[in-house]
């Protein structure tokens, strides 16, 4: 079974506020599973939150972020994390009106050279890898601290 993350864990892993996360859920930008009133985020949800955070840090308004996320889901035909984990680096470039999704460095350079406006870009693959690494590195550390705490108590 795939690991699920609580809202508090997503906040710790991504650095956003709990209210932002709730608001994104209310607006349908990221739709986690529910267990009663609890929101449970999958690894895919967490990857999408990381990409949204990267876009927001670069100054994208939420309306544009929503449009970009819909574009990515349509382009990939599913979840972002599954497509981006395939091995190629995917780069998202936008001038605010047009959105480009490229997985070739040469294509990215061509777009940058031929652009008449400044472009903003993020590497989607890096955002997903960072979140996966953070969740992977976090689990053993928590297990080690629990073991250490357990040894201290038994002494």
Keyword list:
155 residues, alpha+beta, Multidrug-efflux Transporter Regulator, Chain: A, Domain 2, 3-stranded antiparallel sheet, 7 helices, 14% strand, disordered C terminus
Q: What is the number of independent domains?
A: 1
Task: Using the CA coordinates, give the radius of gyration.
Answer: 18 Å
> What ranges have pLDDT less than 50 throughout 5 or more consecutive residues?
139-155
Tell me the CATH architecture: Orthogonal Bundle
End-to-end Cα distance, whole Å, is 35 Å
Please estimate the helix content.
Answer: 55-70%
Structure, explained:
- The structure is a single chain.
- This protein is α+β, with helices and mostly antiparallel strands.
- It has one domain (5-154): Multidrug-efflux Transporter Regulator, Chain: A, Domain 2 (Orthogonal Bundle), CATH 1.10.1660.10.
- Helix content is 60%, strand content 14%.
- It has seven helices and six strands, in the order βααββαααββαβα.
- It has helices at 7-14, 18-26, 43-57, 62-76, 80-84, 105-114, 124-154; strands spanning 5-6, 33-35, 38-41, 91-94, 99-102, 120-123.
- Strands 1-3-2 form a three-stranded antiparallel beta sheet. Strands 5-4-6 form a three-stranded antiparallel beta sheet, sandwiched between helices.
- A hairpin with a 2-residue loop joins β2 (33-35) and β3.
- α3 (43-57) crosses α7 (124-154).
- The model is unreliable at 139-155 (pLDDT under 50).
């Amino acid at each position: 079974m795939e690991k699920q993350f609580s809202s508090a864990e997503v906040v710790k892993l991504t650095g956003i506020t709990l209210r932002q996360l709730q608001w994104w859920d209310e607006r349908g930008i990221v739709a986690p599973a529910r267990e009663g009133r609890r929101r449970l985020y999958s690894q895919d949800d967490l990857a999408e939150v990381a990409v949204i955070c990267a876009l927001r840090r670069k100054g994208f308004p939420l309306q544009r972020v929503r449009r970009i996320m819909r574009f990515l889901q349509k382009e990939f035909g599913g979840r972002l994390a599954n497509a981006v984990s395939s091995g190629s680096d995917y780069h998202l470039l936008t001038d605010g009106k047009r959105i480009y999704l490229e997985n070739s460095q040469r294509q990215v350079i061509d777009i940058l050279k031929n652009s008449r406006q400044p472009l903003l870009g993020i590497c989607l693959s890096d955002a997903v890898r960072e979140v996966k690494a953070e969740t992977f590195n976090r689990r053993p550390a928590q297990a080690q601290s629990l073991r250490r705490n357990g040894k201290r108590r038994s002494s």
